[in-house]
Structures are given as structure tokens and as C-alpha cells.
Amino acid sequence: MSDNHLNIGRAGSVNPNATNVNDTYNVYSTALPTRMDAYFQALLGEIENGITADVFDALDFYQTKLDGTKDVEEKLTDGGFRPSKIAEAKRLKEMYAKIAMQYDCYPSAQKIIHSLFARIKHEFDDSIFPLIEQHQPLHMVMGQMRDRIVVPIREMLEANGAHDTVLGFNEDHIYGMIYYLTGMCHLNWKDYDNV
């Protein structure tokens, strides 16, 4: 065989959408768009065509303050945050809120934000709040929040955001979402049931 030809074995049928070949096992995989990538693609079309919609109920749930009178500053103070960290949290919350307000009239942006809020809320409740209930040190709670929420969401956005030329959410925005949800009383940094 000449150097210009590569023997990949018996291919059987060829998948025209194949993006890579595992030459050991002759496995062909197809890169299918994910739901998140589809939302990003749709968002571009909605912006281009001026397609907007009222906020749908599932997202409205997260944008509505739940019972409670404490704002984000009070909740973070209760959670043991230093004043400088509270000031940073408020800046990150505002950074996220500016982007959200600019694009939350678009249905696909609403779906993206809702998906991220739901993921943050459930992971926080399942993995982070138990640490708070156990009175773990704040640095440990924050480390777990980074490992369990911030980094995985950032990686998911990077892997599925090829068409995201608008929102551009990064780690700062993800932290901002966490503090936004805190201010809306969806996340607690203290076990108020056992005070």
C-alpha cells in the first residue's frame, strides 16, 4: 500500500455526518446538536427576526422573589461572607442581570436561562446546602460550589455553545446567577429552619 492511502478496515455503510473515526474499532460517531446548542442557534434567528415573547411561567418562577425579606447582602452575611466578598457577589449578580435583561425577551434566551437556573438550583440543593446544614467552613462550601456547579456549567456551555455569539456566559455570569437566585430567595446560605 502506498503512503498516500490509509487503511481503516471494512467500513460497511458510511455515515455522511460522521465527524471522527476510531481506527481501532472502526466506530463512527455523529456530532448531533444538543438541546442547548439548538437554543443558541434559535436565539440568533430570533434576534435577527425580532421574535420576542413574554417570559414563560417556568422562568418567571425563578425571577419571582419567594417569601422572605432578606436581600442578597443579608443572606450572604448570614452565610459568613466577608464584606468584600459580598460586594463582589453583588457586582457579579448585576453583571449577569444586565445581560439577562437585554435578552430575556427572546424565547430561546429564556430557555437557556431557565435551564441554567434549574441546574444551579438543584445542584445547590443536592450538593451545597447539605454542607451548609453541616456547618462546613465557607471556603469548603465555595470550593464545592465551584467544582459541582460553576465549572461543570462553564464546561457545558463551552461544549454546547458553538453558536453562542450573544450571551457569552462565563464563570462570572454563572456566579452572578447563583447570587441572583440567592437574592430571589431560591438559594439559602444558612439553615433558617434550624436557627
Structure, briefly:
By secondary structure, the protein is mainly alpha-helical.
SS-based structural class? mainly alpha
Number of strands: 2
Radius of gyration: 22 Å
Strand % is under 5%
| Strand arrangement in the largest pleated sheet | 1-2
Percent of residues in helices comes to 55-70%
Characterize the biggest β-sheet.
2 strands, antiparallel
Low-confidence stretches: 1-30
- Output the number of helix runs: 7
Task: Label the overall shape.
Answer: globular
Total of domains: 1
Distance between the termini: 77 Å
Order of helices and strands: EEHHHHHHH
Mean pLDDT across the residues is 86
Describe this structure in words.
The chain has 195 residues and is mainly alpha-helical. The chain contains seven helices and two strands, in the order ββααααααα. It has a two-stranded antiparallel sheet. Residues 1-30 have low confidence and may be disordered.
Helix and strand arrangement:
Blueprint: E1 18-22, E2 27-30, H1 35-49, H2 57-63, H3 72-78, H4 83-103, H5 107-133, H6 138-160, H7 171-183
Antiparallel strand pairs: 1-2
Helix pairs in contact: 1-5, 3-4, 3-7, 4-7, 5-6, 5-7
What are the main properties of this structure?
7 helices, 195 residues, mainly alpha
